[in-house]
User: Fold this.
Amino acid sequence: MMLHVLMQGRPMGLLHMDDHGNPHFVYDRQWLASADAFPLLISLPLNRPTHSSATVGAVIWGLLPDNDTILQGWGSRFHVSPRNPVALLAHVGEDCAGAVQFVTPERLPHVLSGAADGIERLSSADVAARLSQVRRDVGSGRWLGDIGQFSLAGAQAKIALLRLDDGWAVPSGRIPTTHILKPPGTDYTGFVENEMFCLRLARAMGLPTAASEQWDLAGETAICVERYDRLQTDAGWVRVHQEDFCQALGVMPQIKYQNEGGPGAADLAGVLWAHASQPRRDVELFFNALVFNYLIGGTDAHAKNYSLLLGSGGEIRLAPLYDISSALPYPQLQKRKIKLAMKMGSHYKWWDIRLGDWRATAEAMRLDSDAAMKSLASMCLQLPDVASQQRQLLQQEGIDHPVLETLVHEIERSCERCLRQFSTTA
Assistant:
């Protein structure tokens, strides 16, 4: 099986499986010769026109859902093996994270010419029905008969749609999805409000984050996140390329957590030092994101939840944050037992992390540890008041839930606990 790989609508290369089931990627010669060429991913550099097996596998699996239920459902729907990423992308790869599209030979002329472009308009009731369905069946993000299919990484139930001035649509061809809608799960009450609050709080603290809002209709609630890998221009929406840090490091998504063999903070910082256009700025931003996630009890900030944006001019920078939430409001997630996705110093457990762990983390990231500790203290001092302000702003938007009051209280306690460590070490 072979798929054409398009980047921002231009032929970039070919993806195929060999007789042993190993994926291979070959750059197109014209792409390599173009003045504005950039790699599919930094783990697949342009100075090697052909890439094979392990690294390619990590890259393409990283574009697919990290959820066996979804993959099994797609396998049944499309009559392919759920363990064959190329076969899956043949059906869902025309709208992925970033600016890449995977197109079958049969559809290539239609996609390149624009003949495959189209939208299927949805009413608000249609969107609500899709959210209801995806809550019950996480693999049903697209319905049979839809003109376009998409693939979103991660394990949560979600759908990707095109937002129009007057509603929503399912796009196809060169037209991208622009927003991701995630309904709440059943395990944690107020999770949509939790994620909305944490994203808004991160932005208020100066961290670049994806724009978000709450969507409510016909009994369905979802967090609606504008895709940072899409850009609205006078000519319409265009795709912007990105990759997550597991892909950048050639790590399979199944080992995204550091305690399962995945990348840690120093590994991600190493990528930024080696490849970012403004490495110091981005490493410092990343450190502040780690501090923020610690103070809010964000336990799912693994390597796939941090990404890079790749520009056609060769610019590489840390992507806006997304998928941020707090474990602190939920008593079933005991504070003394919850673990961070990445180790800080010598500890994973949130409760056990001390100032020495932050100093060690900063040093491992090649940052000035004294300056890093000042950043930690500064965020501890500012975060409680900013959290209270963000809660009030959400209430003014009509978004209220008991989880918000709990979040403000727990974040204040978290910051006070951290500040006490500064007092005892002074």
